[in-house]
Amino acid sequence: MHVLCFEDAGTAQLAPITTGRPTYAIQCASYHLLDWLQRLDCPILGSVRPHLHTIQKVDYGLTALGGERVGEPMLLVNARLVPSKSNWLALRELLQRGQACQISDDEGLLAAVLPAGWSLVQPTDDSADYTPTAIDHIVAAARVQPVGAAALDAFVWPHDVVSWHMRLMNENMQLRIEEGGYTQLEDGVFVAPDAALGPHPVIDTSEGPILLDRNVKVGPFCFLSGPVYAGPNTRIIEHAALKDGVSLGHTVKIGGEVEASVIEAYTNKQHHGFLGHSYLGSWINLGAGTCNSDLKNTYGTINLEYNGRRVATGMQFMGCVMGDYSKSAINTGIFTGKVIGVASMLYGFVTSNVPSFVNYARLFGQMAEIPPDVMINTQARMFGRRKVEQRDCDTQLIRDMFRLTVGEREQDESLSML
């Protein structure tokens, strides 16, 4: 049986996290959904938005559902599923049961088992992909019935990534420790063979473990309060304070104070400044002194605004969500619960959401669109510093993200007035 991980219409609500990455590649509590799907020991196919077809193939090794697989037994998995052990167990149960069934929630189809002999509802070829509507039609045509009692958890809004991260962090750390072959340096501190913990650390593992993966280097005089996961090749700068649930992707540089946050691969926050209860995408750089707020002055729960819609998070602590390739200048202050699009530059105080591809200096009365060529040149310089090859698909992704986010800039009244 093959697994087909598909993006549905709900993917749009997860922007800017999903603007430049497949939804199954969202990091949460140190894992991606794709990590868990690989544990099912079945070949995996991916159905993603057209601008991510090449990225999916070269970076994640997945191909689309081609005509040669039509009619084979298939497990459909929504790419918005939370990367958790409980979801993996539920999917494994569906596979073992082997009977045609489906699981849905208010947002749509979450998983389904297609029996042998299902048919197409639209023409296809070996490189074809399927829209969310087509996936629904395939399931309906196969007369797949809902399964009772089973439940799956899925991301609906960007802040859900931070919420689930905090809930899952300890559980996921324990799983990594059990499976990873790490060395225990002291009570609750686990390291890969080539990781190095600098001199004079202050360690607190009373609330969760510290896990340093391959080639992680921790500078001197750092405070680490678990649970904390540092991905391969990460650098933790001297005097850094990481606490209360921090998950760092690979090749990250991190300094200052970070609390209860998810940071994707190749992002830099090297200097002093506070980041709390936030999600940062890839290839972000936060300038020295950049801070965000994750608590309202009233101590009330936080509402976030997505495309003009106010959404109650139910969270007392929620910082910012920042899309890939965005940057902040020195001493930037990001207000509580702000959403920052991809490839934007921040200056001064960020008191409102920021569209993608915007120079945001609202404090100084300046906001302007950033042309994609500027970001492509910036990308080349960033990649060069990390010895990463800039490929045609990388530059095309910048152009595609610019095109796909035109509506964000057109709807922003403050941008159109300046």
Secondary structure tally, helices: 9
The CATH architecture of the largest domain is 3 Solenoid
The tally of structural domains comes to 2
The N- and C-terminal alpha carbons lie at a distance of 55 Å
The total of beta strands comes to 32
* Poorly predicted parts: 123-128
Instruction: Just give the CATH class of the largest domain.
Output: Mainly Beta
Roughly how much helix do the residues carry, as a percent range?
Answer: 10-25%
Strand content: 25-35%
Largest sheet: 12 strands, mixed
SS-derived structural category = alpha/beta
Annotate the secondary structure layout:
Blueprint: E1 2-6, H1 33-38, E2 44-47, H2 53-60, E3 74-78, H3 85-97, E4 101-105, E5 108-114, H4 132-141, H5 159-180, E6 183-186, E7 189-191, E8 196-197, E9 202-204, E10 210-212, E11 217-218, E12 223-225, E13 228-230, E14 235-236, E15 241-248, E16 253-254, E17 257-263, E18 268-269, E19 274-276, E20 279-280, E21 285-286, E22 291-292, E23 303-306, E24 309-312, E25 321-322, E26 327-328, E27 333-334, E28 339-340, E29 345-346, E30 349-350, E31 358-361, E32 366-369, H6 372-385, H7 392-404, H8 406-411, H9 413-417
Parallel strand pairs: 1-2, 1-3, 7-10, 8-11, 9-12, 10-13, 11-14, 12-15, 13-15, 14-16, 15-17, 16-18, 17-19, 17-20, 20-25, 21-26, 22-27, 25-28, 26-29, 27-30, 29-31
Antiparallel strand pairs: 3-5, 4-5, 6-7, 23-24, 31-32
